[in-house]
Amino acid sequence: MTDYLYGSAHVRALENAIIGRDRIARLVEVKDASEAYALLAEAGVTVYRDDGGKALREETLLGILKSAYQTVEELAPDDTVLKLWRYPYDCNNVKAAIKTFIRGIDPTPMLFDFGCVNAETVVRMVEADCFTGLPRAMCTAAKEAVDVYARTKNPQQIDLILDRACYADMCAAAQNAGNAYVLRLVRVKIDLLNLMIAIRILRMNSGEAGKALFADAFIHGGCLSYSFVKELFDGGEDVLWGRLQTTEYGVLSDRVAQSDRTLTAVERISDNFWMEMICETKFIPVGLEVMVSFLLAHEYEVKNLRIVLAGKEAGISAVTIRERIRDSYV
Q1: Which residues pair with 132 in a beta bridge?
Q2: Residues with Cβ < 8 Å from 245, sequence gap 6 or more?
Q3: For residue 106, how far is the Cα from the chain centroid?
Q4: φ and ψ at residue 168, rounded to 5 degrees
Q5: pTM, whole model, 2 decimals?
Q6: What is the pLDDT along the chain (330 residues), one digit of tens a residue?
Q7: Which of 15, 73, 78, 173 is 20 to 30 A from 87 (CA-CA)?
Q8: Which residues, listed in sequence order, are joined to residue 55 by a DSSP beta bridge?
Q9: Rounded distance between C-alpha atoms, residue 36 and residue 30, angstroms
Q10: 179-191: b or e for each residue (b if 16 or more CB lie within 10 Å)?
Q11: Contact criterion met (CB below 8 Å) for 221 and 171
């Protein structure tokens, strides 16, 4: 615990710089994207621009994440467990590299230079059909995804296979860390993803094909078993939300019932449920939990900023943008 004493104190001081609910509210009310970027710059965010001076949204947002992860990984006595939150970026890069290699197009616009493995290295892995260096499950899954696509010509299988592997790697890293809070975060994240998968498929009304897709898409490793969620899935959406009352997701079910139950609303409620778990560590003075929460707070900061900036760039009303905003850590 004392190993985290200095790092935890430093991170707590940096939390004040997070673009939280008050600043997000101000950004929602500005006239257009240019004013939003100006406010971000005033708040200390580095706004990246192209040669013509146009603000680059994704480069700016990725810069926020890079800075947060670099700071925390330098402060932590062991950054292994912190890196597991980068695995989804590795997963995205592997999927993008495989799909673009198949199509013979440049993968660069689809890559995140933010995973544990350099994005260019991932591209070379796909070209060489050798994935050594990726986290264990993704290493095996990447080869499987290529082989399955060769047989089926179904690009969706690439996503399904690699998504399952990504969360298997995250679970393994969390278990190896021996930290109950981190493992719970990962397991609940998996449950929430599976529930959203179930809702999306149920609303497609695709019958037996939907059941088969749900079986393929289900991610193992959460608190809710496949058999339990499948039973809820088979009963339909009302049964699903009703039966969740008997689980730790009863509050989530209540909030969905009180909403308009649009997909946008359900996704926001699900994200907010997870954010509440992150906020549980606010009163922990020292420890790995402080650093993990700081990183995930920035993930949600970036998610909210993406909603606001993309909305302003598209001319979406402040009312609509506000409806999509997630809760903040600060």
Answers
A1: 134
A2: 253, 254
A3: 24
A4: -65, -40
A5: 0.94
A6: 578 899 999 999 999 999 999 999 999 999 999 999 999 999 999 999 999 999 999 999 999 999 999 999 999 988 888 999 999 999 999 999 999 999 999 999 999 988 999 999 999 999 999 999 999 999 999 999 999 999 999 999 999 999 999 999 999 999 998 999 999 999 999 999 999 999 999 999 999 999 999 999 999 999 999 999 999 999 999 999 999 999 999 999 999 999 999 999 999 999 999 999 999 998 899 999 999 999 999 999 999 999 999 999 999 999 999 999 999 999
A7: 15
A8: 49
A9: 6
A10: bebbbebbbbbbb
A11: yes
Please report, for the chain, the start and end positions of each structural domain, with discontinuous segments joined by +.
1-55+288-330, 85-178, 179-283
* φ, ψ of residue 149 in degrees (nearest 5): -65, -40
Q: Give the angle subtended at the CA of 183 by the CAs of 117 and 78, to the nearest 5°.
A: 50
Strands (E), the chain: none
Give, for 328, the enclosing helix (H) or strand (E): none
Give the CA distances from residue 215 to residues 75, 207, 280, in Å, rounded to whole numbers and listed in that order.
41, 13, 33
Instruction: Identify the CA nearest to 141 among candidates 119, 118, 125, 120.
Output: 125
Task: Determine contact, residues 196/267, Cβ cutoff 8 Å.
Answer: yes
Q: How far apart are the first and last CA of the chain?
A: 24
Query: Apex CA 86: angle with CA 287 and CA 14, to 5°?
Result: 45
SS3 sequence, 268-296?
Answer: HHHHHHHHHHHHHHHHCCCCHHHHHHHHH
Joined together, the tokens standing for residue 103 give: 């199509």
